[in-house]
Design a protein that fits this description.
By secondary structure, this protein is an alpha+beta fold. It is built from six helices and 17 strands.
Length: 368
């Protein structure tokens, strides 16, 4: 089903989910930094998120599509300046080679399961071609599609994600609070052997150019139980719950958005800092993990393709980057926790059960 209704009710979206469950801050975990009002990637102006979730608890399908639109749909042929970093390359993010060379991408970003990444890329191009007739004539596109593996819980070889699911996620992208846990591409994902999935967080920071927002969205499917560290405390072995594997078998995709004006090389440097954020959670970025990070800025819009004869930038000084680096590290650390706290115990194929993290036990271990 397409996830569309995320209108806020009587809750603080920075600390609680729309159904009242605590996020990391709502659990009173000592998360550092100042968040945006939503504590989400959508705190960055113009960024929207959509989901299509395919999930039947107790069944064999736990998968879906997450779509992130960096600009308004009609402006997605405007290049978005970006940088990419692969901490461990056992995974896929299409378009990454061009981001490294040119420093930009166009179109929506999609995140799904490993076997559906090609379909997500194909469907995104179809969505773009329908809206921008110049594609396939004067212009081309290399959209960003990324993946993590949900085959422990979901019938990944059944290829349940369809073109229509991708289009629904893109068309359903909204501003406002972002659903977390077992939604979109995160529906079947596992983090530190607890149920993981989609998580988000944001930070406010300042440079000499003014105030800026950094927002991240993660698809968390990485780590094993003994590694789990929360707020500097090793808690994994002390938490209850059955284990599902003894070696790293997953991945994490991190998408970083900011309204700070940055050069592509500076955005690559931001993307690298996601590695420190996931490292705070305890992972060493295992051999089997595809840990791939993309950072983009909504500033310095050059207008639609083709590129103009000359490009000009306003960019934050390198001497002012430290606050942005810290914002990325803190947001990624918190987003992974939010993914786990937002998830539900899930029974998947072959009757496999992956339990949700025990929030109250986690709180006691961190604060005790």
């Amino acid at each position: 089903m397409a996830e569309r209704d995320r209108s806020p009710g009587n809750f603080d979206p920075a600390t609680h989910t729309p159904d009242g469950r605590p996020r990391a801050r709502g659990l009173e975990l000592p998360m550092p930094g100042v968040t945006g009002p939503l504590n989400a990637v959508t705190d960055v102006g113009g960024v929207t998120v959509g989901f299509t979730t395919l999930r039947n608890n107790g069944g064999t399908v736990h998968t879906g599509i997450t779509a992130i639109l960096p600009r308004a749909p009609g402006d997605l042929l405007h290049p978005v300046w970006a940088g990419v970093f692969s901490m461990n390359g056992n995974g896929e993010m299409t378009g990454a080679h061009w981001v490294r060379d040119a420093g930009w991408f166009t179109g929506p970003i999609t995140i799904t399961n490993t076997f559906s990444v090609g379909l997500a890329h194909h469907a995104t191009l179809k969505w773009m071609a329908k809206r921008f007739p110049a594609l396939g004539e004067a212009l081309w596109a290399l959209p960003v599609a990324a993946e993590t593996y949900d085959g422990y819980l979901s019938d990944i070889a059944g290829f349940h994600v369809s073109e229509e699911h991708v289009l629904a996620a893109i068309d359903g992208a909204l501003s406002g609070p972002v659903a977390e846990g077992c939604v979109g591409g995160g529906a079947g994902m596992i983090a530190y052997e607890f149920k993981g999935g989609t998580g988000t967080a944001s930070r406010r920071t300042a440079t000499r150019l003014g105030e800026h927002t950094v927002g991240v969205l993660v698809q968390a499917n990485h780590g094993i139980r003994p590694w789990l560290t929360v707020c500097g405390k090793p808690v994994g072995d002390a938490l209850p719950g059955r284990r599902c594997h003894n070696v790293e078998r997953g991945s994490i995709i991190v998408i970083i958005a900011t309204d700070a004006p940055l050069l592509p090389g500076q955005l690559e440097r931001l993307a690298r800092r996601a590695a420190i954020g996931i490292g705070r959670g305890g992972t060493p970025s295992g051999n089997s993990s595809g840990d791939i990070f993309l950072a983009f800025s909504t500033a310095n819009d050059p207008g639609p393709l083709p590129e103009p004869p000359a490009l000009s930038f306003t960019a934050v000084s390198n001497d002012d980057l430290d606050g942005l680096y810290l914002a990325v590290v803190e947001s990624v650390e918190e987003a992974v926790l939010n993914a786990m706290l937002g998830a539900e115990t899930t029974t998947g194929k072959h009757g496999r059960i992956v339990e949700a993290i025990d929030a109250e036990k986690l709180k006691a271990l961190v604060l005790g």
